[in-house]
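Suppose you are handed a protein chain with no further information: no name, no annotation, nothing but its sequence. What can you learn? This example shows the usual starting point.
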Amino acid sequence: VQLQAFGGGLVQAGGSLRLSCAASGLIFTRYGMGWFRQAPGKAREFVAAIGYTGTRTYYADSVKGRFTISKNNAKNTVYLQMDSLRPEDTAVYYCAADNWGGAEADSYEYDYWGQGTEVTVSS
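A reasonable first move is to predict its three-dimensional structure. Written in structure tokens, the prediction is:
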């Protein structure tokens, strides 16, 4: 199983980025997917999750209304559209796959992790 996250970069506050996570080696239609992030010196935290069908979503309060998670089962890819970015969104963002298919906030529910993509938001 391989999860490859990409799309990070440097953006000014108020700007947007779209992260992508391409999955291979698994039956993607059966997996729930999540995004987590880890800022320097801080613990990893939940950002957003989506169930295996792509209809159920769940967001951290800190990103609700600004970030949107979506899942394209035909392309084996999960996305995180990030709008109205803030400096506190600066972190390495990781995607993860849950073989129970849920939209889970607990990192222990996830079986596979990607390598991370760095997002830096300047003020």
